[in-house]
Amino acid sequence: MNSTPALLNRILLAVLGLILLGVGLLLVLLATVPPVGSWWHSWSSGAWGGINQVFDSTRFPGRPESWLWIVVALTLLALMGLMVAWIAQQGKGRSNLLAAEYDPGEIPGDVRIGGGVAEQALRHALEGRPDLAGATVTTYDVKGSPALKVRLLPRQGVAPHLLAAEVSGLVDALESVVGKEIPVLIHVGAGARTRFSRAERVR
Protein backbone atom coordinates (compact mmCIF):
# COMPACT_ATOMS: atom_id res chain seq x y z
CA MET A 1 0.00 0.00 0.00
CA ASN A 2 2.95 2.34 0.25
CA SER A 3 5.03 3.81 -2.54
CA THR A 4 8.23 1.98 -1.75
CA PRO A 5 9.86 0.99 -5.09
CA ALA A 6 9.68 -2.76 -4.49
CA LEU A 7 10.72 -3.71 -8.04
CA LEU A 8 13.75 -1.42 -7.91
CA ASN A 9 14.70 -2.84 -4.51
CA ARG A 10 14.53 -6.38 -5.85
CA ILE A 11 16.65 -5.45 -8.88
CA LEU A 12 19.27 -3.76 -6.69
CA LEU A 13 19.34 -6.73 -4.31
CA ALA A 14 19.72 -9.13 -7.24
CA VAL A 15 22.57 -7.10 -8.74
CA LEU A 16 24.30 -6.79 -5.36
CA GLY A 17 23.87 -10.52 -4.76
CA LEU A 18 25.36 -11.38 -8.14
CA ILE A 19 28.32 -9.07 -7.52
CA LEU A 20 29.00 -10.59 -4.09
CA LEU A 21 28.60 -14.09 -5.53
CA GLY A 22 31.10 -13.30 -8.29
CA VAL A 23 33.60 -11.82 -5.82
CA GLY A 24 33.26 -14.81 -3.52
CA LEU A 25 33.70 -17.25 -6.39
CA LEU A 26 36.77 -15.38 -7.60
CA LEU A 27 38.33 -15.45 -4.12
CA VAL A 28 37.72 -19.19 -3.85
CA LEU A 29 39.28 -19.79 -7.26
CA LEU A 30 42.28 -17.59 -6.42
CA ALA A 31 42.87 -19.58 -3.25
CA THR A 32 42.42 -23.06 -4.74
CA VAL A 33 43.34 -22.92 -8.44
CA PRO A 34 46.94 -21.81 -9.19
CA PRO A 35 46.32 -20.98 -12.90
CA VAL A 36 43.60 -18.54 -11.84
CA GLY A 37 46.05 -16.84 -9.49
CA SER A 38 48.60 -16.47 -12.27
CA TRP A 39 45.95 -15.07 -14.60
CA TRP A 40 44.82 -12.60 -11.96
CA HIS A 41 48.34 -11.30 -11.34
CA SER A 42 48.99 -10.74 -15.04
CA TRP A 43 45.55 -9.19 -15.66
CA SER A 44 45.64 -6.89 -12.63
CA SER A 45 49.14 -5.67 -13.52
CA GLY A 46 48.04 -4.82 -17.06
CA ALA A 47 44.84 -3.15 -15.84
CA TRP A 48 46.70 -1.06 -13.25
CA GLY A 49 49.23 0.01 -15.87
CA GLY A 50 46.42 1.04 -18.23
CA ILE A 51 44.76 3.10 -15.50
CA ASN A 52 48.01 4.87 -14.68
CA GLN A 53 48.53 5.62 -18.36
CA VAL A 54 45.05 7.14 -18.65
CA PHE A 55 45.62 9.36 -15.62
CA ASP A 56 49.06 10.39 -16.89
CA SER A 57 47.59 11.38 -20.27
CA THR A 58 44.86 13.55 -18.68
CA ARG A 59 47.01 15.79 -16.49
CA PHE A 60 46.44 19.51 -16.30
CA PRO A 61 49.02 21.45 -18.33
CA GLY A 62 52.05 22.03 -16.15
CA ARG A 63 50.60 20.12 -13.19
CA PRO A 64 50.90 16.48 -12.05
CA GLU A 65 47.19 16.15 -11.19
CA SER A 66 44.72 14.58 -13.60
CA TRP A 67 41.33 16.14 -14.28
CA LEU A 68 39.86 12.64 -14.09
CA TRP A 69 39.94 12.97 -10.29
CA ILE A 70 37.32 15.71 -10.65
CA VAL A 71 35.18 13.33 -12.71
CA VAL A 72 35.61 10.61 -10.08
CA ALA A 73 34.61 13.03 -7.29
CA LEU A 74 31.52 14.22 -9.19
CA THR A 75 30.55 10.62 -9.92
CA LEU A 76 30.83 9.72 -6.23
CA LEU A 77 28.72 12.74 -5.29
CA ALA A 78 26.09 11.72 -7.84
CA LEU A 79 26.04 8.18 -6.43
CA MET A 80 25.64 9.54 -2.91
CA GLY A 81 22.73 11.68 -4.07
CA LEU A 82 21.08 8.68 -5.71
CA MET A 83 21.54 6.65 -2.54
CA VAL A 84 19.96 9.39 -0.42
CA ALA A 85 17.04 9.62 -2.87
CA TRP A 86 16.62 5.84 -2.81
CA ILE A 87 16.62 5.75 0.99
CA ALA A 88 14.08 8.58 1.09
CA GLN A 89 11.71 6.50 -1.05
CA GLN A 90 11.63 3.63 1.42
CA GLY A 91 8.42 3.36 3.39
CA LYS A 92 6.73 6.35 1.75
CA GLY A 93 2.96 6.41 1.72
CA ARG A 94 2.39 6.55 5.47
CA SER A 95 -0.21 9.09 6.52
CA ASN A 96 -1.23 10.79 9.74
CA LEU A 97 -4.64 11.87 8.43
CA LEU A 98 -7.68 9.60 8.46
CA ALA A 99 -10.47 12.00 7.51
CA ALA A 100 -10.84 15.70 6.70
CA GLU A 101 -14.10 17.56 6.05
CA TYR A 102 -15.13 21.18 5.86
CA ASP A 103 -17.75 22.18 8.47
CA PRO A 104 -19.79 25.23 7.41
CA GLY A 105 -21.46 25.50 10.83
CA GLU A 106 -21.54 28.46 13.22
CA ILE A 107 -17.76 28.49 13.24
CA PRO A 108 -16.71 27.35 9.74
CA GLY A 109 -13.51 25.38 9.48
CA ASP A 110 -11.86 22.07 8.63
CA VAL A 111 -12.44 19.03 10.83
CA ARG A 112 -9.53 16.61 10.74
CA ILE A 113 -9.23 13.18 12.37
CA GLY A 114 -5.73 11.79 12.70
CA GLY A 115 -4.81 8.29 11.68
CA GLY A 116 -3.66 7.61 15.22
CA VAL A 117 -7.30 7.61 16.33
CA ALA A 118 -8.15 4.59 14.19
CA GLU A 119 -4.84 2.88 14.88
CA GLN A 120 -5.17 3.17 18.66
CA ALA A 121 -8.87 2.23 18.64
CA LEU A 122 -8.33 -0.93 16.61
CA ARG A 123 -5.19 -1.91 18.49
CA HIS A 124 -7.04 -1.49 21.78
CA ALA A 125 -9.91 -3.64 20.50
CA LEU A 126 -7.52 -6.37 19.31
CA GLU A 127 -5.04 -6.48 22.18
CA GLY A 128 -5.41 -9.21 24.74
CA ARG A 129 -7.25 -11.56 22.39
CA PRO A 130 -6.21 -15.19 23.00
CA ASP A 131 -6.59 -16.03 19.29
CA LEU A 132 -4.04 -13.42 18.17
CA ALA A 133 -0.27 -13.61 18.46
CA GLY A 134 0.08 -10.04 17.23
CA ALA A 135 -1.68 -7.22 15.40
CA THR A 136 -0.57 -3.95 13.82
CA VAL A 137 -2.64 -1.12 12.35
CA THR A 138 -1.16 1.49 9.98
CA THR A 139 -2.63 4.42 8.07
CA TYR A 140 -1.54 4.97 4.47
CA ASP A 141 -2.20 7.53 1.79
CA VAL A 142 -3.35 5.75 -1.38
CA LYS A 143 -3.75 8.06 -4.37
CA GLY A 144 -4.68 10.98 -2.14
CA SER A 145 -7.17 9.04 0.02
CA PRO A 146 -6.51 7.60 3.50
CA ALA A 147 -6.65 3.83 3.97
CA LEU A 148 -5.91 1.40 6.76
CA LYS A 149 -3.80 -1.74 6.76
CA VAL A 150 -4.54 -4.22 9.54
CA ARG A 151 -1.97 -7.01 9.85
CA LEU A 152 -2.97 -9.99 11.98
CA LEU A 153 -0.94 -12.94 13.24
CA PRO A 154 -3.46 -15.59 14.36
CA ARG A 155 -2.48 -18.39 16.68
CA GLN A 156 -2.49 -21.98 15.54
CA GLY A 157 -5.99 -23.35 15.18
CA VAL A 158 -7.71 -20.03 14.46
CA ALA A 159 -9.63 -19.73 11.19
CA PRO A 160 -8.20 -16.72 9.30
CA HIS A 161 -11.45 -15.93 7.44
CA LEU A 162 -13.44 -15.78 10.70
CA LEU A 163 -10.83 -13.50 12.23
CA ALA A 164 -10.93 -11.22 9.18
CA ALA A 165 -14.72 -11.06 9.41
CA GLU A 166 -14.53 -9.99 13.07
CA VAL A 167 -12.02 -7.27 12.21
CA SER A 168 -14.35 -6.08 9.43
CA GLY A 169 -17.04 -5.65 12.09
CA LEU A 170 -14.66 -3.54 14.18
CA VAL A 171 -13.88 -1.40 11.14
CA ASP A 172 -17.62 -0.94 10.48
CA ALA A 173 -18.05 0.33 14.04
CA LEU A 174 -15.11 2.69 13.55
CA GLU A 175 -16.62 4.03 10.33
CA SER A 176 -19.91 4.74 12.11
CA VAL A 177 -18.03 6.81 14.68
CA VAL A 178 -15.87 8.64 12.15
CA GLY A 179 -18.77 9.13 9.74
CA LYS A 180 -16.79 8.13 6.69
CA GLU A 181 -16.14 4.88 4.81
CA ILE A 182 -12.48 3.89 5.06
CA PRO A 183 -10.75 1.47 2.64
CA VAL A 184 -9.10 -1.31 4.64
CA LEU A 185 -6.62 -4.04 3.75
CA ILE A 186 -6.80 -6.94 6.23
CA HIS A 187 -3.63 -8.98 6.02
CA VAL A 188 -3.59 -12.35 7.81
CA GLY A 189 0.04 -13.38 7.93
CA ALA A 190 2.18 -16.24 9.17
CA GLY A 191 5.28 -16.12 11.30
CA ALA A 192 7.30 -18.07 13.83
CA ARG A 193 4.28 -18.11 16.13
CA THR A 194 1.75 -19.02 13.45
CA ARG A 195 1.60 -21.75 10.81
CA PHE A 196 -0.98 -20.40 8.42
CA SER A 197 -0.60 -19.60 4.78
CA ARG A 198 -0.75 -15.93 3.90
CA ALA A 199 -4.17 -14.43 3.18
CA GLU A 200 -5.35 -10.92 2.42
CA ARG A 201 -8.80 -9.37 2.38
CA VAL A 202 -9.70 -5.95 1.03
CA ARG A 203 -12.93 -4.24 1.95
CATH topology of the largest domain: Alpha-Beta Plaits
Name the average pLDDT.
82
* Rg value: 28 Å
Portion in beta strands: 15-25%
Would you count the extended β strands for me?
6
Note poorly predicted spans. Answer: 193-200
- The arrangement of helices and strands along the chain is HHHEEHEEHEE
Structural class by helix and strand composition: alpha+beta
Q: Helical content, roughly?
A: 40-55%
* Biggest sheet architecture: 4 strands, mixed
The shape is: elongated
Distance between the termini: 14 Å
Reading off the top of the CATH hierarchy, the class of the largest domain is best stated as Alpha Beta
Strands of the largest sheet, in order across it?
3-4-5-6
**Total discrete domains:** 2
What's the gist of this structure?
The protein has five helices and six strands.
